[in-house]
């Protein structure tokens, strides 16, 4: 697969990854190379990565604990302190090997340490390959509120080695697939139709689908890197999805949802709201709901949960001037941004999901 140029950042795939990285290491002559991992990628991904690495620079491994619960400023402080103790300087390179938590947090650490050092992202989950790998968003959560602190700054390069997908559990694969389904809904009926029988998808199919998904997001981000307009469409399903994810993360009686699991619920809710406000076909909404529930199952969201989830909407990053802005669909491939939605319609959407 050919490499993709995206806003001063090149995305390399499979066999091109390590050739490009080694050339980059040689040409930039970094003083030190730091590699950020969690306990899972340290064991499952780092050995393969180090086998491909060619550099005379000193290499230091920094490990943090996995999971969204550790994507916070305290973890950043720990990594900053470690970089400082290991004598990282402005000419150091940070390589982030992991899922979205690692690439988001590692990118933020790199952008802020000594006012910015170079970094490279090596996404190892399907979700991070098709979502976090493109667009330069970095950052951490504020308490249980998603991605409240961060900056937009691109890495030197992104390396997508799909062999790492073999290390993932099925629920992690499904979580990443949710973002690919979203790309189809907001951009391309033809791409969406490729997912109509999810049971038949194989790992061999994934390479081409991942490449297409990366291209879809890349084309959006190229036009609108700072989310002033078109890039907001990438948040389809995320307004309520993030609120549900945050609520389940903070509620002691709820299980923790993976990002994609929450976004699937958010997309079903957004499709229902679209039938009410933008004329999105009811039959299409029903078909989308059935496809998602058949593949992901249905989470229990009690009536008592509705209002606390809705209260979290005020923290959504798309909000402005006190308005909660939704991304809705007029048709598959035709999103509409900055939609205002009455609470009564959101409550009806929850009932539709539960029915």
From TrEMBL:
Its EC number is 4.2.3.4. The chain crosses the membrane at residues 262-280. GO terms for molecular function: 3-dehydroquinate synthase activity. SUPFAM superfamilies: Dehydroquinate synthase-like. The keyword Cell membrane does not apply. Keywords: Cobalt, Lyase, Membrane, Metal-binding, NAD, Nucleotide-binding, Transmembrane, Transmembrane helix, Zinc. It is an enzyme of class 4 (lyase). Pfam families: DHQ_synthase, DHQS_C. Residues 176-319 form the 3-dehydroquinate synthase C-terminal domain. Its cofactor is NAD(+); Co(2+). Residues 62-174 form the 3-dehydroquinate synthase N-terminal domain. The keyword Nucleotide-binding applies. Catalyzes the conversion of 3-deoxy-D-arabino-heptulosonate 7-phosphate (DAHP) to dehydroquinate (DHQ). This is 3-dehydroquinate synthase. It comes from Mariniflexile aquimaris.
